[in-house]
């Protein structure tokens, strides 16, 4: 939408907020603000679990400092699955050392024989898949809770925490033990930033991802406060554990660890009921590696969840699956890794019309007619930074219109075309240029410094993935800045002074 703006305004930008100082927001809007308690429900006081308690889903750090010597006494995950209905498949489980010698090795799924695109690597029967339908025992209850109370991840995490309390009596003991081994670590052996210390989160300074982590952590806390509601409403859980009130049986830190572990391996199935759409699949992630340029996905087919590979594999090659069109920020938060070849990587730029502008309502209407909102989010995709800047410019120009007659011209036009004076165009471009410079200034390191850090083979794994992330974000912002400067240089007289704009849109 090419909208013209009057030369009679002044460009006023609010101070640019570095993302590390943004206040956290509630992530799960479905979660109510106060937990529901049931005073008349039977209660048993449980000793609060420590991080190394056997009552937790994710083992504590202390218990993971050395390998479990008794592990060989138990059957491995794949043997357990075969004994419980897994048909012959074309994969095996191997392991690679963790970056931290104190932690157990990472397990991963490899091809047991040569595979061709279209081959079925494995098919896990529904009896070995954990879904809300199984957890809550009622599809209606599952839909009710996940619509009004909790996320699917919280319900699944709670179920596995209860199952772990049963020890070897639980059908899921071998699978839960595998999740404990992985500890929510991705294939790079890095935990989600949700489990990082404050000092480790500082690796993300300047990145909007740090605020996202804090928002997600707040959301998990709010879900924790709703766990008693799930326990009371879920018939299957209540019948099995009538005295184990969740918030008494599991402290928040343990729940968060379990939540993150489940988050790292949950599969979003397509074309199934709502109560089955989120599933925990043994042999699935995190044993499978995620890859952004892969198209193979786990799918529900005839009472099973199967994987059809999208490429050729030699025996021993790790099997990879697609994790959807997720930016690197989500890959890091959800799975603990960053993909430098991720073609779905993107940043967000938010622009808002000035509500104090006397012509705000007319401008809002003009924006709506062209498919934009009064507060508009722009997605800046990697490799398409120029297109993103071109999409932002018409919206920004709208904020510079000050002459009522010009505004009427904009409203009456049939298309997104309106003349712009060189000084007004310069003001718009300067605003955008200053915005990108301000975002880049929030990072404590430069691109060259990031490259130097990544060249260090001994760099801490968490710092490595964080540095990879901020480096890729800076590349996107630099490309946007370069595009904007090029537009400035293409003006008839690029040295012309910008026109003032008292009601310029805000950017953040």
From TrEMBL:
Q: Which residues form the Rubisco LSMT substrate-binding domain?
A: 355-477
Q: Which InterPro entries does this entry report, sorted A to Z?
A: Rubisco_LSMT_subst-bd, Rubisco_LSMT_subst-bd_sf, SET_dom_sf, SETD3_SETD6_MTase
Report the record's Gene Ontology biological process terms.
methylation
Cellular component terms per the entry's GO annotation: chloroplast stroma
Indicate yes or no for the key word Transmembrane.
no
The answer to keyword Acyltransferase applying to this record is no
| GO MF term list | protein-lysine N-methyltransferase activity
Instruction: Name the UniProt key words of this record, in alphabetical order.
Output: Methyltransferase, S-adenosyl-L-methionine, Transferase
Source organism superkingdom: Eukaryota
Task: Please give the Pfam families that the UniProt record associates with this protein.
Answer: Rubis-subs-bind
Name of the molecule in the record:
Rubisco LSMT substrate-binding domain-containing protein
Species assigned in the record = Anisodus tanguticus
